[in-house]
Each structure stands twice: as structure tokens, then as C-alpha cells.
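R.M. (postdoc): so does anyone remember the format we settled on? I'll just put the C-alpha cells first.
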């Protein structure tokens, strides 16, 4: 039997192998068997069908990459000032993120993508003069970033959520001096998660590996080496489940498919819901694919009031779907989850549309 088909049982072994030194009080375990996710050894959305489509085993998510955002560049930090205090506050941002997590979960959100190097706080951008990285130039960890990460992961564990943690973001990877620093950053971040005893975390090596990365190890031809590095790190017989993503509409390459525990797709630029279904079908046809979960964890298309949209299309193809929203030109503070400072509540029409459809589909 191949490894990917027994990850559920491996995860069970991992949990039973806990020692007191590895945070045995953790409450949440995420695992995979074939193309289905389990949380605490039960299928997600167990028994749920929606419009004739099975939902159990999927992992609905939202792109919330700025949960531990900061800006170490004194020239650009003024861009993120809160309107009420006229200053940026990284701890406030994380605290407000954590305060809203139970609300997201109440609608059926079981996962969110948090990137350790964030994402563009403008939604999309060419240049990134801000410095948002939890790593030093040599790949050591910055304690203040990981203190904020711990708050988020502790709450996710308490709530029974399984976050997707991205390690790198293009435009910020050049904050690392060289390839050795990238290896150090991966090793240090993954080891930190393992040493804290988290069993509810999925890893995305980097956001959109085929988009503008400086270091070759983060590019499509070699990124599988980092996937394998993550898989090689263990504590008490435990390891983390891992993948990486590509830009919108791109089908993953064979090297990534063979190395990954699950597949991450992006729907940016895919305005026709039928193309979402085609992406899933094409991914299942990539050489080396065997049954494993397919997860959209970024898609900036909405139309949630329409019977056919990218979310419903993904469900019809038995793929998980992830909402990506940012504050567009001249919009107010309540819009978007990627634009900093972030309103982490459900206070815009787009956010309400997503969460209401999420609740309907998942039966929460």
C-alpha cells in the first residue's frame, strides 16, 4: 500500500506516540486517507451532502495570510496605520484575528491559509518594499512573529481547525540571503511547529511557486526538494502533511504531485466555473497522481448569490475551496481579508456572501 493512502493511519500512530514533552494536551489532529480529510479521526462534514454532491472529507478554507503580519521597514509601516490610533499594531492585528476565529468556525470554516511572510497587503502588487518576514537573513526565527503564530495555532487547536501554514511568499523570499538560509528557515519553522506539539497543521511550502521567486529552490523545478525536507522532519514519530501551490489556473507539475500529501490549486484568473472543474480533472490526470485531497486555497471570484460559481463548481468536482478577498480601490475598511489593516470580522457584503454559502454547503 502506498504512503499517501495510509496517512490517516500514520497520523493515528503519530498521536499515540506523543510524549509529555511534546505538548500532549493538544486537542486537534488533522489526517488524510485517500482523498479525504479527517479531524480527530472523523471525516470532516461527516455525512453531509449538498445539491447531490458529497461534502464529507473536504476542507473549506479562507485566505487569511496576514494574521501575524508586521512591517520591519520604518519607511513603509505608516501604510498600515489603524484609522482610530494612527499607528500600526501587530499584536492588535493578531488578537483581533484570534477573536474572530470562533465566528468563522461557526459557519463551517475548518481551515484558513496563514503565510509566515504574509501576502501583498494591497491584494496584488508589483513591488514589495515592506519587510514582513519571520526569518533573519540566515533563516533564524524572529521570536515576536512566532509568539503571534502560537496564539493563532493554540486557538485553532482549541476550536478543532486545521490551518494551512505557508512558509514563503514571493517578493519577501529575497529577505533570505541564499539557498542555505531557505533550508534553515524551513527546518527551523517546521521544527518549531513539531516541538510545540501541534497536530492540526498543514504546510504550504510557498505561495505560487511559479511566480517571481528569487531562490531556485522555491521555483517549480526544485520546490519538491523542500516538500521532501518538510516530510523528513519528525518529532516523536510525527511529521507534518505538506504541499505547495501554483499561480491561478496552473496545473501542478509531476514532481510536486509525486512529493505532496495533498494538492493545492488557485482559481485566480479563472472566471468560468466550468474551468474550475476542468482544473480538478486535469490535476487528477497528472502522471504520479494517486487519490489525495485537492484543495483550492486561493480564489478571488465571488458571485455567491448565483447557483453556479467557483465555490459550487469546486464542490461539484469534489474539491475543497478557499475564499480570497482584498480591499479594492476606494473600498472601506470592512472589505477584504488580505489588505492591511484588516477587519477580521464578517462585515462586508462579499464576506457575508461567502460565509452564508459556506454555512449552507457544510450544514453548520
Amino acid at each position: 500500500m502506498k504512503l499517501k493512502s495510509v496517512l490517516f493511519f500514520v497520523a493515528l500512530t503519530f498521536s499515540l506516540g506523543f510524549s509529555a514533552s511534546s505538548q500532549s494536551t493538544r486537542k486537534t489532529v488533522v489526517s488524510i486517507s485517500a482523498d479525504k480529510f479527517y479531524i480527530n479521526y472523523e471525516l470532516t462534514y461527516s455525512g453531509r451532502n449538498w445539491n447531490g454532491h458529497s461534502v464529507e472529507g473536504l476542507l473549506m478554507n479562507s485566505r487569511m495570510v496576514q494574521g501575524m503580519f508586521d512591517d520591519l521597514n520604518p519607511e513603509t509601516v505608516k501604510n498600515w496605520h489603524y484609522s482610530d490610533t494612527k499607528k500600526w499594531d501587530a499584536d492588535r492585528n493578531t488578537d483581533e484575528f484570534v477573536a474572530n476565529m470562533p465566528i468563522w468556525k461557526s459557519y463551517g470554516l475548518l481551515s484558513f491559509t496563514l503565510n509566515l511572510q504574509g501576502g501583498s497587503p494591497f491584494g496584488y502588487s508589483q513591488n514589495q518594499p515592506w519587510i514582513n518576514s519571520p526569518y533573519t537573513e540566515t533563516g533564524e526565527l524572529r521570536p515576536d512573529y512566532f509568539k503571534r503564530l502560537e496564539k493563532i495555532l493554540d486557538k485553532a487547536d482549541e476550536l478543532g481547525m486545521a490551518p494551512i501554514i505557508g512558509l514563503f511568499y514571493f517578493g519577501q523570499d529575497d529577505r533570505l540571503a541564499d539557498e542555505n538560509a531557505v533550508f534553515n528557515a524551513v527546518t527551523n519553522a517546521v521544527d518549531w511547529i513539531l516541538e510545540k506539539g501541534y497536530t492540526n497543521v498543514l504546510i504550504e511550502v510557498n505561495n505560487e511557486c511559479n511566480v517571481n521567486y528569487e531562490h531556485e529552490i522555491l521555483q517549480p523545478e526544485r520546490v519538491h526538494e523542500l516538500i521532501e525536507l518538510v516530510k523528513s522532519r519528525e518529532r516523536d514519530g510525527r511529521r507534518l502533511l505538506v504541499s505547495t501551490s501554483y499561480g491561478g489556473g496552473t496545473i501542478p507539475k509531476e514532481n510536486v504531485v509525486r512529493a505532496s500529501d495533498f494538492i493545492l490549486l488557485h482559481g485566480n484568473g479563472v472566471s468560468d466555473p466550468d474551468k474550475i472543474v476542468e482544473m480538478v480533472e486535469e490535476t487528477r490526470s497528472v502522471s504520479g497522481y494517486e487519490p489525495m485531497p485537492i484543495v483550492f486555497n486561493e480564489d478571488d471570484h465571488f458571485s455567491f448569490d448565483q447557483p453556479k460559481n467557483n465555490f459550487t463548481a469546486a464542490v461539484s468536482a469534489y474539491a475543497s475551496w478557499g475564499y480570497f478577498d482584498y480591499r479594492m480601490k476606494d473600498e472601506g475598511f470592512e472589505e477584504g481579508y488580505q489588505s492591511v489593516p484588516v477587519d477580521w470580522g464578517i462585515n462586508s457584503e462579499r464576506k457575508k456572501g461567502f460565509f452564508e454559502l459556506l454555512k449552507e454547503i457544510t450544514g453548520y
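R.M.: ...and that's the designed sequence above, right after the C-alpha cells. Also worth knowing: Confidence is low (pLDDT under 50) at residues 8-22. The two ends are 35 Å apart (CA to CA).
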